[in-house]
Amino acid sequence: MVKYHPDTNTLLEFAASSLPAAQSVVVSTHLQFCSECRQRLAQLESLGATMFEDAQPIDINPSVFDNVLARLDEVQEVHAANDANASTMSWTVKQIRKGNLDELDWKKVTRSLRIADLGEIEGAAEFSLYHIAEGGRIPQHNHSGTEMTLVLQGGFSDESGSYHAGDFIIREAGDIHAPTALPGSDCICLAVLEAPLRFTRWHHRWLSPLLQLRAG
Amino acid sequence: MVDKQGEGARGQPATSAWSVPQGRRTDEWSQCVVRIAEHRDRAAFGKFFSHFAPLIKAFALSGSSLSAAHADELVQEVMLKVWQKAAGFNPEKAAASTWVYTIARNCRTDMFRRLQKFDTQLEAEDVGFELEGAEPTMALHASRGAVRVRELMSDLPQDQAQILAKVYMEGKSHSETAAELGLPLGTVKSRVRLAIQKLQVFMDVGSEE
Known about the structure:
The complex is a heterodimer of chains A (216) and B (209).
Chain A: H1 8-15, H2 21-33, H3 35-53, H4 62-71, H5 75-84, H6 88-98, E1 106-110, E2 113-117, E3 124-132, E4 141-142, E5 147-153, E6 155-158, E7 161-164, E8 168-171, E9 176-177, E10 180-181, E11 187-194, H7 208-215
Antiparallel strand pairs in A: 1-2, 2-3, 3-11, 4-9, 5-8, 5-11, 6-7, 6-10
Chain B: H1 28-39, H2 42-61, H3 68-85, H4 96-115, H5 124-127, H6 143-154, H7 158-169, H8 174-181, H9 185-198
Helix pairs in contact in B: 1-2, 2-3, 2-4, 3-4, 7-9, 8-9
């Protein structure tokens, strides 16, 4: 039974598609575990749909409809081409969804800790999987940005509590903790560390990760 | 999930504003999508287009986040997806309006990313969650529920309604909303939660299992 969930604000940003990609992957993976949050998401999407339906309609030039009609038959081909071009990151996300974690690129960090770096992604300074051997401990650390964690297998405990498969945990910048895997089975977590440098203005939003790449 | 009418705690109505009897939807837009899927019916597609395309354009232009040319491009993309994905639409699980809203939302997010030239590698669909095909319960959004939410919406204080419009219609994050309105992030978050409470969006969560 999942005990820790994304809050209403996070779920609403997800429902409105304004949560950055990395955080969205964590939330959508939580949704695979949690029917309660799936229900809440459906309700939040319905609210969005109601607002959408109640918008003041804006006239469309008839040429737009003609263009769409002319393109109806080419749609299938475009779809096939998109599938062929699916990115590595898109493949990675699918493996996480399916639980095919062995396929990923794991690196040994300590005797009890392995990490799979999932690559560069919008909205995250780090996007990775942690594999902690049962009873193993991650050295104490703090965060320069918000850290979002989802337990995929096993469980861990820290100063604030213990967490099991499906639990969704947020640690704010400055929180210090030293997670320890629970006994009984190895613990695997999906974690996103928010990009420390983040523009808040709308038209700068997608620039932040680019700047980090350059700074890195 | 089972609809437990009459079991609401503390005198609240047991069901959320969305709850409706389950069953196949017979509203005209859901029927339209079914005809598009089953018969590749261009007349039904035309009818669907004339109703929803002007709404998609309004959605695209909310908060002036896209130019008029990009808004028309978005309308085309969304309507092509409607044609392409119609076979995956299940009228027992979602209203056509919710279905087309989620397509428009995803296409707009992808367009924002393309326009910012950010090579995100991921599309909104890759990171989203398709509720269709999950358990047979979701998004029970019928006219009765929508009418009630609309009534509650008209009583919503302006400062909360404005923020809901920014997060849904303009697709802005809470921090972008806070920056634009010159409000602390915490104020935006709490107004969002208050609005969701007043609209009774979550009423039956927690009493269902």
